[in-house]
Amino acid sequence: MEETSTPRAQWLRGVLDMCLLSLMAETPAYGYEMTVRLAKAGLAVADGSIYPALARLRKRGLVEVERRSGDGGPARTYYRPSEAGMRILRSWTRDWSEFTTSIGSIINQPTREAP
């Protein structure tokens, strides 16, 4: 069976919620703005992935929303982490740090040559 998505895409799917909460923790943001900020960080994420993730975070009570009128355009929905969202972001950040340290200790081993 051939794998159709890249490991990077799979990894991003696994950490997208954490990345979105982290972006919102810096400053409240609307969906497309988060897509642009992720892209600037080198993470290409389609709008079709962002909005279901935001809905999932909202359903879990991890984000709060605020409608703001746009500058001459339609109103935008801005997202920010709720108190529960900030708690889980801190927890996920600790877990991520431990996880990446563990993975790094494995994959950064010097390559051993066969005898």
Identify the notable features of this structure and list them briefly.
115 residues, alpha+beta, Arc Repressor Mutant, subunit A
Q: Overview of this structure, please?
A:
This protein has helices spanning 7-26, 31-40, 47-59, 83-107; strands at residues 29-30, 63-68, 76-81. The mean pLDDT is 89. It has four helices and three strands, in the order H-E-H-H-E-E-H. It has one domain: Arc Repressor Mutant, subunit A (Orthogonal Bundle), CATH 1.10.10.10. It is globular, with a radius of gyration of 17 Å. A three-stranded antiparallel β-sheet has the order 1-3-2. The chain is 59% helix and 12% strand. With 115 residues, the protein is α+β, with helices and mostly antiparallel strands.
Brief synopsis:
By secondary structure, the chain is an alpha+beta fold. Helices cover 59% and strands 12% of the residues. Strand 2 (63-68) and strand 3 (76-81) form a beta hairpin.
